[in-house]
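Changelog note: in this version the structure field was regenerated for every chain. One regenerated record is shown below for reference.
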Amino acid sequence: MADRQPRQHTRRTETQARDARIQTAKSAIATRLRYIRRHHPEGPFTLAALAERAGVSKRTLTQAESAEGSNLTIETLVKVAHSLGISRDGYFLDEQVFQEVNSSFAALVEMRDRGVDRVALRTSDPEAQPQLQALMKLLAGVADSVTEARDTLSELSHSVDPPSSNGVPEP
């Protein structure tokens, strides 16, 4: 009988640890779902709009974003991610994937804010992701260079003396 108590205690501790990991994962999914709804380049999305876009119920998404979270299926997570143009299935569970995808979206938002209105970068090939990341960084650098050049030219044009009435600058 003495042997049973340590084993029962160990099982209880393991169950508690597992339950804590489950709750942590649910909380991470809820946080990431709220984040992408609010910060997606084509958003922000209401729960109803995202549910319709993903082909899932609003109730499912509401429960997923709640404090307790819900037991979402892999199918639901993939549908939501896919509906938002996210081809990396680990988006809602893996912090690194979450950060990388959000960085890509931030670059797209920056390009849009700088007047770039079309860029076709989506792919379903996960091996292409590093090349897409590099291309987005390159495009962001080009956009920065264009802005810097425009600002420099603007400063130069303001510093040149205006021409005199005969079209020749005054000495």
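Spot check on this record: The chain is about 65% helix and 0% strand. The chain has a mean pLDDT of 82.
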